[in-house]
Each structure stands twice: as structure tokens, then as C-alpha cells.
Amino acid sequence: MRAMARATPSAAPARRRARPGAGVLARVGVAGLACLGVVASGCSSTPSRPSVSAPVVPLRDAGLRARLSKGDAARREGRLDEALADYEQALAADPAHLPSHMRLVETLLSTGRRSVARDRYRARAAAPGATQAERVMAARLDTDGSPAAVRTVYVAAAKAAPNDPWWRLALAEVDLGAADRFIHAYDDARQSGDRPRAAETLDLARRALSRANSAVENATKRDPSLPETHLYRGLVRALEGDLLAGASGREAAFRSAMEAFERAVAADPGMLDAWANLGDAAQRAGDAEIALSAYLSAIRLAPNDPDLREGAGLVLFGLERHVDAAAQYTEAARLRPRDAAPLLNAGDGWAAADRFEEALAAYDEALVRDPSAVEAHAKRGAVLERMGRLGEA
User: Fold this and answer.
1) How far, in Å, are 237, 250, 281, 294, 384 from residue 311 at the CA level?
2) Cβ atoms within 10 A of the Cβ of 210, count?
3) Best exposed site among 16, 17, 216, 221 by fewest CB in 10 Å?
């Protein structure tokens, strides 16, 4: 799945979809900003969980989920060795737990340790008492890593364990990733005016989403209590929204995604990716209150994730809470010390709040980070003009 894009108050909302649980891929008023320093300045109360009509089934694997949630936060914050340690601890508790294996493999691959992962799983698969998950992960790592090859491995695993919902969700993950890549290609083809390529990639995206949806529904039939079924259903709906041209259809798709993500976090409040995706879907559906609450819930789980900070900043800017938006963007800039973009956004927030000196300081720091950031000069000139310093402007 695509990584969360950087949020800019001056641009059209960009996708900020998080990667769902196995490595793929909130409802209160606006006043519900937590007054913890790690969340934002000038806030008062803690966001509550969303309310949904579906009954919440007690989690059978709550201990494992808590460990995975800790690892997911570490992964999003860039503490990858800590994430690996958390996933290893989860596997020590349950060597057959597929989500733990998938997170471990994905994290190893993302850090360039494919050979380490391949050697580890080859040895595990050959050992007496190897679990199906270990054997399948070994087979996956022996492929070229292409979506088609990985999908073939997971199809065989699903056939070998017809009642296991996790292999269906693994298939959904592969197809969601493929759909996401096709949507990127579709967007690029449209922008370049390549109509045949746009039509081809649109068709491929729709087919991948259809396969993903079928896999999610098959997993749901096998175990409707799994929060991941709601997470993946929400991702399908959100990607469908990306493909719709009409505003009303897009909003309906994102609201459907919101409902699925709300069910996921109601069932498992520690599901970081569901909170992040709920924030994105709600923002795109125009429901800023839910978007803000969701982002803040995600930030409480992963306070050092700059993407979540930028998501919250975008929503706050839209709500004209410019000082709070600038605070979130400033924190994102601290967490991403070589990137000028969060500082440009922070400057926009300060400027909108008529705090011009802070705005100038943010734009100046952005230029220190990236002297080619021409936009900073234009923004700086506009602020100087508003300050009456026309010669400098």
C-alpha cells in the first residue's frame, strides 16, 4: 500500500493511507484534542472511541495484539529493530500466528534484509514441527517477490487450510497493494494524456479491487469477529473512492470506508493503521471532526510518526485552527529533520493566524533545509507584504 503522503493546507487532499496490519497495507467533537504535549498545544480533552451499532466480540488474542500494536508503532516511527523485537516476541508466544510472521517478513524486507528472512524461514520450514505459516513464508521468500508470485503461494496456502481466514486476508493484502499501484499508474497516465494506458490501468485496478473484496468477504465468512476484516474492507472502499469521478460517489465510498474503519477500532482500539485510515477517509469525506479525533487517537499510539502529525495538521488547518495546525506541522518537521515541506506548512499556519514572525522563521528554516524551495520565497514575500515591509517583500 502507498505510504501516507505529506499533507499541505494549500493543496488538494492527498492520499495518506497507512499500511494495514500484516504489512500492507474516531468520533468526538473538534474540542477533543488531547492536552498532552505529544499531541498538540492548546488542547483540552481526550478523544473517545467511536460508537458503532455492531456488537464488539472480545478479542481472543488480546495479548498478541498488544505486542503487535507496540511493534506497529515502532515501525511507523522508524524504530525498525524495536519493531522486529516485538514481532519476535509475539512469535515466541505463538509460532503459528500468521499476522506476526507477515509483519516480521515485511519489516525485514523493508530494511533490505531479504536474505536474512529467506535463510531464517528456509531453516524453520525444514525443521521438525514447522508451522504452516513458516512453510508458506519460506515459499514466499523463495519467489521473485512479484505480486503474482506471492499471490500464487498464498492461494496454495488457502487451499491447504480452507477454514483459515488469515490466508484470505493475506490474498486481500496482495491485491490491495496491486490495486494501489495501478491507481498510481492510472493517475500518471491521465495527467500525461495517455488515454489507452489510463483505460488499461483503470481496468487492472478494478480487477484487483474485485479480487481483494472477494478475499475479504471469504475471510469474513470464516471468522466475522476478526477486526482485520473491517480494516481490509475499509481499504477496499477507500481505493474504490479513488477511482470514482463524481463527488457524491466518492463521498459515499469514503463514508463506507469510514464505517468499516470505525468497526475495526471499536473491535481493537490498538489498531493503529485503522485509526490512521479512518482519519484519511473522514477527511476525504468532509467529516473533519471524526478525522481529527482519529488522527489524534493514532498519534497517541505513535506520537513520533510525522505522517500522522501532518494528517492532523491538514485537518486542523481546514478547521481554521491555525495555531494548532502549525504546532502539528512543527512537530512533523522535528521528526523529519531534512524535509522542508512540514516547515512550509507550519509557516502557512502561523501566517493564517497572523503570527507573522513565526511564519517567517518557519519559511527561513525551510530554505535552510532546501535552498531550492522556491515556494518559500513566495510565501515569505506575501507575509512581508502583509506586515507592511514592502521593500523586503
Assistant:
1) 20, 19, 11, 10, 28
2) 14
3) 221
